[in-house]
């Protein structure tokens, strides 16, 4: 182990410890809650990605497939990519690309809307089976975690 010779040593000043006041802590509570939420969300997404990998899905593919299924159940009819884009808050080009991937894998059936320029989308039987299996895997992966909303409310309380 090397040592610094005494004549080469420099005594670095030790900065005084600054204690955060209650007002400063309160002013930073929102930022701390946001960072905590972000870190928990990233951890949850990593767990979800791990669970979905076994089913050949990424999180964005699963999310679009899940949302499509959800919208079809709500409306009892085929849905548009625009409706999926609106629900997921993904841009239209991303949803269009992901729907193309799902269609290539025969997980959704899509056809042109009568008199329009958008697609009408249904889940195929294969897609329905995959969303059931993968959603169950997500539920198992997340079962040990508290909901994110509970965590935020807890952290923001004085």
Please provide a written account of the structure.
- The protein has helices at 22-27, 29-53, 59-75, 81-88, 92-104, 125-142, 148-156, and strands spanning 79-80, 108-112, 119-123.
- It has 7 helices and 3 strands.
- The chain has a single domain (27-156), classed as Arc Repressor Mutant, subunit A (Orthogonal Bundle), CATH 1.10.10.
- The chain starts with 21 loop residues before the first helix and ends with a helix.
- It has 158 residues and is mainly α.
Biggest sheet, spatial arrangement of strands: 1-3-2
Rg (C-alpha, Å): 25 Å
Shape: elongated
Content-based structural category: mainly alpha
CATH architecture assignment: Orthogonal Bundle
- Reported by name, the CATH topology is Arc Repressor Mutant, subunit A
Low-confidence stretches: 147-158
What is the residue-mean pLDDT, rounded to a whole number? 86
Q: Helix proportion of residues, in percent?
A: 55-70%
* Count of distinct structural domains: 1
Question: In brief, what are we looking at here?
Answer:
With about 160 residues, the chain is mainly alpha-helical. Helices cover about 60% and strands about 10% of the residues.
Provide tags for this entry:
158 residues; mainly alpha; Arc Repressor Mutant, subunit A; 3-stranded antiparallel beta sheet; 7 helices; 61% helix; elongated; disordered C terminus
Fold topology:
Blueprint: H1 22-27, H2 29-53, H3 59-75, E1 79-80, H4 81-88, H5 92-104, E2 108-112, E3 119-123, H6 125-142, H7 148-156
Antiparallel strand pairs: 1-3, 2-3
